[in-house]
User: Fold these one by one.
Assistant:
Number 1:
Amino acid sequence: MKKWFLLLFAGATLTACGTTTETDTVESTDTIEVTLNVTVEGELIEEGSITTEVDPNEFLLEIMQREFDVEDENKFITSINGHEQDVANNEYWLFDLNGEMAPVGAHELKLSDGDVVDFNLAGLE
């Protein structure tokens, strides 16, 4: 009986010593503010300009899908709020980031505080 008690005590002690306490991981609740503008041939669409707070870990495509009625094909935006691209007329959704062509697609782009994104449905020449 004494051996069982010692084994039980030793096992409990080892288990207690081997247990690591989880440190509370504090996830960042910080948000950033970005502005999204949507135009068709240079004209702002209805409800096409918003400034909103977003998670800095979200990709632009996710933000657009949440804030607008967006359709995409293979992660390329094909329609925003019912305004569809027209492949036959060479009209596509393009976007600029802070006044310059974005370096990557919307599905790869994470934004920074104060960024301005301009989506425009326009013909390519």
Note: The longest strand covers residues 43-54.
Number 2:
Amino acid sequence: MTDLLFIAPRARAIVSSAARWRVRALALGMMFSMPALMLGNLPMGPAYAQAKQRTREAGEHLAAVVAMIDSGHFKQAQARIAQALAQPELSESQRRDLQFQNERMRRIRLDFTLDRAQAQAKLRAQIPDLREEEFDDWDRRGLLESMTIDGDKRYFQRAPSNLFRLDADALKRRRADAKPLSQGPMERFNAHHAQVRDAALASGYGAPRRVRITQSLTVAADAVPAGKTLRAWLPYPRELPHQQEAIRFIASTPANHRIAPASAMQRTVYFEQDAKAGQATKFEVSYELTVFGQYRKIDPDKVVAAPANSETRPYLGERPPHIVYTDDLRKFSREVVGDETNPYRIAGSSTPRSTAFPGPGRASIRRSRTSPTTPCTPATQTAASRPCC
């Protein structure tokens, strides 16, 4: 029996239950509207009205559950979900949407595991003389990401280590012999960046590199009962001219796999394995590809906001549960944007200040599995960029 799902973190978007809900809701709406288009304004009868009412109520019920989870009322949300799942007329897609909310709560609990004493203990490992008042100050300023779940305040498991990336004063308080914060080699400008820029200014792209990628996901031994089937989707690249080309599969564990067609927008490689007692279950894929550097020289004065019309509107709005505009996010957007009207400068000015984003809002973003660094407003949607939201 296959009843467990493991997804690589960067591939989670492919199984967005909310996305499936929107597609199915649209299809359902079109199906019911077609007779009206063909027959005019003839009455559709009580069956149509009842189906439409059930669909509307299901959507409202799901939105209420999402709001409960976002505000930390997990027990209340679980009760509402259980009540809804007991309804026999619930469609399969509606049932999956509700079950996903249970899974979302489970994942949140895995992320927010530390109580106050545990968070302080982690900090004291790097700040031996940590003071209660400075912990409270960092907490009050939202630098220690937390979430209150059913009245129990829990800190994000990496909040103590993330603090040193968010606050210069906290970094100064860190032990002198502490391990330096890691920084990838491509996070600072280097000779390769200059090569990319020079080539891209001439042709729009350049400085190709042949790279080999290995990605893996391991499920701990006995984390899943023996005999259960584990299913995994690991990211796999698409051919994009002058961006990533000549993709070549090398090997995988297990050997049996299925690669999504190149037309898939979120391309993955799919595996199945049965869990074995006392053994970890590993999924791994290796491939090669040629990547090209790209650079776009943008004149801010020539950038205009994309129009808010039928084509762009789906990308500008909220998409619960993954993208939710919290009050803190809206406030942050207003503070960063100020009186600026140029969309390019709005997007650029927000990035350096993103670390000052208030705690509850950051937690809301974390819970939604998104991490925008620019205010999500129509003004930030430019003709030269994809939507930030």
Note: DSSP finds twelve helices and ten strands in the chain.
